[in-house]
C-alpha cells in the first residue's frame, strides 16, 4: 500500500513508519518537526520519503494528490495536555483545523482510509475501570476535547464522503525515541534521570496507576488497522494499571542504581487509577499487547543508554 504518515518523524509515528517499511509498503512522512514535539529528522529512515510541512499548509493538497496514498496514518498533533491548557487556540488550530485539512485532502486524493491517533484523554476521570470504548467521555483538557471532536469529524467524513477510518485511543505509550526531556512520559523521564545518576520526583504517594503500552505494540495495532476496524474506535492498552512506584522499582532493578526520590504533592487533575480493556481490539483487529512491561522498559533503557555518550538527552 501507499501510506502517508503525518507526524512520522515523531515518537509513535516513526515506529509505525519502521513497521510499514518492514512490510514493504511505500511510505511518505509529512511532519513540521514542531519545536515542542518529539519529531526528529533522523527518526525517518532513508527508504521513506520525507516532506517538511505543517498539516495546516495548503501545500498538503499537492503532496496528497501527487503521492496518491491508499491510507493516511494521522499522527501529527499538538500532543501536550499542558500546552493545550495554556494555549487552547493553538491546540485547536493543529488538532482540529489541521485534521480537517488532512481529511479534505484525503477525500480529494481518493484516500480509502484514515487511521487516527486518538487518546485516553478523551475520557477524563473514569467512573469505572477498566475503560472501554463505551465509557463516558468527559475530557478535562483542551487536548482531550480536540481528540474527542476529531473522532466525530472522522464519523462525518465516513458518512458524508465515504472516507473510512479507524481511531486508536492510546493509553500511555512508552519506548525508544520518546523524548525524555519533555513532560511526555514518566518512563522516559525516569530513564533519563537514572542514566544520568540523578534523583527522580514522585508525586502523591506514587501508588497512582496508568496503563503503559509499548510503542512497538502500538505500531502493530496500526498495521492491523490497515485492513481491519472499519469505522470504529478502539482502546489500545494492556488492561493493567501500573503504579509509579512499580516503575521506579523496575528501573532500580534494570539499572542497579537507587535513584534518590524527592516526594511531591499530587498534581491537580491527577487520576488515581487507570486501565484500558483491549478486548474489542483483540476481537476485531486481532491485536494483543505482547510486550511485558519489564521487557519494554529494559529495551527503552538500553536504547537511551546507547545514546547517552552521544548526548542525546
Ligand atoms: N505518547 C502517548 O502516550 C500518546 C497517547 C495518546 C495519543 N497520542 C497521540 O499520538 C500521536 C503521536 O504522538 P507522539 O507521542 O509520538 O508525539 P510526537 O511529538 O513525538 O509526535 C508528533 C509529531 O507530529 C509533528 N507535528 C506537530 N505539529 C505538527 C503540525 N502542525 N504539522 C505537521 N506535523 C506536526 C511533530 O513534529 C512530531 O513529529 C499524537 O497525535 C498524539 O496526540 C500519543
Helix and strand run? EHEEHEHHEHEEHEEEHEEHEHH
CATH level 4 superfamily of the largest domain: NAD(P)-binding Rossmann-like Domain
- The CATH class designation of the largest domain is Alpha Beta
**CATH architecture label name of the largest domain:** 3-Layer(aba) Sandwich
Number of domains: 2
Task: List how many beta strands DSSP finds.
Answer: 13
Small ligands present: nicotinamide-adenine-dinucleotide
Tell me what portion of residues adopts beta-strand conformation. Answer: 15-25%
Question: Could you say which structural class the secondary elements and strand pairing correspond to?
Answer: alpha/beta
* Secondary structure: helix percent: 25-40%
Walk me through this protein's architecture.
The protein folds into two domains: 196 residues, NAD(P)-binding Rossmann-like Domain (Rossmann fold); 95 residues, UDP-galactose 4-epimerase, domain 1 (Alpha-Beta Complex), CATH 3.90.25. Helix 6 packs across helix 10 and helix 8 packs across helix 10. Helix content is 39%, strand content 18%. It has 313 residues and is of the alpha/beta class. It has a seven-stranded parallel beta sheet with strand order 3-2-1-4-5-6-11, with helices on both faces. It has a two-stranded parallel ribbon with strand order 7-10. The protein is globular, with a radius of gyration of 19 Å. The model has no long low-confidence stretch (mean pLDDT 96). The structure holds nicotinamide-adenine-dinucleotide. The site of nicotinamide-adenine-dinucleotide has 29 residues, from helix 1, helix 4, strand 5 and strand 7.
Amino acid at each position: 500500500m501507499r501510506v502517508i504518515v503525518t507526524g512520522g518523524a515523531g515518537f509513535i509515528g516513526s515506529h509505525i513508519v519502521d513497521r510499514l517499511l518492514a512490510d514493504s509498503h511505500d511510505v511518505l512522512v509529512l511532519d513540521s518537526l514542531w519545536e515542542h514535539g518529539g519529531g526528529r529528522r533522523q527518526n525517518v529512515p532513508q527508504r521513506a520519503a520525507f516532506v517538511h510541512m505543517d498539516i495546516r499548509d495548503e501545500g498538503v493538497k499537492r503532496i496528497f494528490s501527487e503521492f496518491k496514498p491508499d491510507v493516511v496514518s494521522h499522527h501529527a498533533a499538538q500532543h501536550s495536555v499542558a500546552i493545550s491548557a495554556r494555549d487552547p487556540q493553538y491546540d485547536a488550530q493543529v488538532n482540529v483545523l489541521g485534521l480537517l485539512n488532512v481529511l479534505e485532502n484525503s477525500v480529494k486524493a481518493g484516500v480509502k482510509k484514515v487511521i487516527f491517533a486518538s487518546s485516553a484523554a478523551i475520557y477524563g476521570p473514569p467512573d469505572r475501570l477498566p475503560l472501554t470504548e463505551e465509557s463516558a467521555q468527559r475530557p478535562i483538557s483542551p487536548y482531550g476535547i480536540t481528540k474527542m471532536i476529531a473522532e466525530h469529524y472522522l464519523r462525518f467524513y465516513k458518512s458524508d464522503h465515504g472516507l473510512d477510518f479507524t481511531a486508536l485511543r492510546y493509553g500511555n505509550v512508552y519506548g525508544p525515541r520518546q523524548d525524555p526531556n519533555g513532560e511526555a512520559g514518566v518512563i522516559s523521564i525516569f530513564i533519563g534521570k537514572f542514566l544520568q545518576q540523578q534523583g527522580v520526583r514522585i508525586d502523591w504517594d506514587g501508588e497512582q496507576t496508568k496503563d503503559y503500552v509499548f510503542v512497538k505494540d502500538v505500531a502493530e495495532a496500526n498495521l492491523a488497522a490497515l485492513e481491519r476496524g472499519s469505522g470504529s474506535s478502539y482502546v489500545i492498552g494492556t488492561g493493567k494499571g501500573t503504579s509509579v512506584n512499580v516503575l521506579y522499582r523496575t528501573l532500580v532493578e534494570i539499572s542497579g542504581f537507587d535513584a534518590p526520590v524527592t516526594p511531591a504533592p499530587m498534581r491537580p487533575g491527577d487520576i488515581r487509577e487507570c486501565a484500558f480493556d483491549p478486548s474489542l481490539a483483540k476481537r476485531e483487529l486481532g491485536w494483543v499487547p505482547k510486550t511485558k512491561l519489564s521487557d519494554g522498559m529494559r529495551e527503552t533503557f538500553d536504547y537511551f543508554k546507547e545514546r547517552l555518550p552521544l548526548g542525546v538527552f
